[in-house]
Amino acid sequence: MDWIDITYNRKSLFIKLIGSLILIAMAVVAYFISGLTKTEGIVYRIWIGFLIIALIFSTATFLNFLFHTIMPKKRILFSFNEKGIKYKDKIIPYDEIEDMSYGLDVSHIATAFWQGVIINKKNEEKFIIPTYQVLTDKEVDTLIFEPIDKARFPGDVT
């Protein structure tokens, strides 16, 4: 069987970009509502901090979206078939995998900030595939785990 590729989800990135722009708009409105004339004090510093965090998050999301939109070909995160999972040049057979999860893992620099697929192998080894994007639980199930489970357990309907 051919390898089935899991790629970046541009729709998800676009939705997060819109969300981050709404976050900035809310922060700016809240800043102006909190006091147009106050330029010192703890509340002012909290709002400035919130604006800076919102701006950084929005910029990172926008650059990530722009990078994956400009690319002529979708970047492949990893591939799978009924035999195993392939990441770059490494193939992990399903019988070596104890469990898989999605989230943050500080043991790998790429997944300390951005979430990734974490594959725990039976020999206590951990294999991490960074996604460089944040997916919702539904997106993770729909885009990653359900297709892998269908390939791994072709006769299982549950």
From TrEMBL:
Membrane-spanning ranges: 12-34, 46-67
Top-level division of the source organism's lineage: Bacteria
One family name in Pfam for this protein: DUF5381
UniProt keyword Transmembrane, yes or no: yes
Keyword annotations from UniProtKB, A to Z: Membrane, Transmembrane, Transmembrane helix
Record protein name field: Uncharacterized protein
Organism per entry: Pueribacillus theae
Taxonomic lineage of the native organism: Bacteria, Bacillati, Bacillota, Bacilli, Bacillales
